Input
Amino acid sequence: MVDSEAAEPLPADWTKRPEAVILILFATLLVLWQIYLDLSEIDVENSLSGRKLAQRLGVSYSTIARRREQASFGEWSKSLDPDGIAWVYSDGRFMPLF
Output
């Protein structure tokens, strides 16, 4: 006589499944990275790459790269910016000084 009800497998412990552990670790890292970005001082939304700033100021990228370390960069960029914004170079990005 065959039992008509098939035995359901017991649910596996998720910690024994490497793909589940990796997925949870990945999701945790994404959340922590987002928290880090939110708390960091770098304003990614308002920052520009060197090429974008060069376009905004109407100069070449090489001019930006050459001048970015000079103390007068903020005043120089302000004189060329269409909105009169001074820019500073920090952590590989150019950020506005409001």
In short: The radius of gyration is 26 Å. The chain is about 45% helix and 10% strand. The chain has a mean pLDDT of 84. Residues 11-40 form one domain.
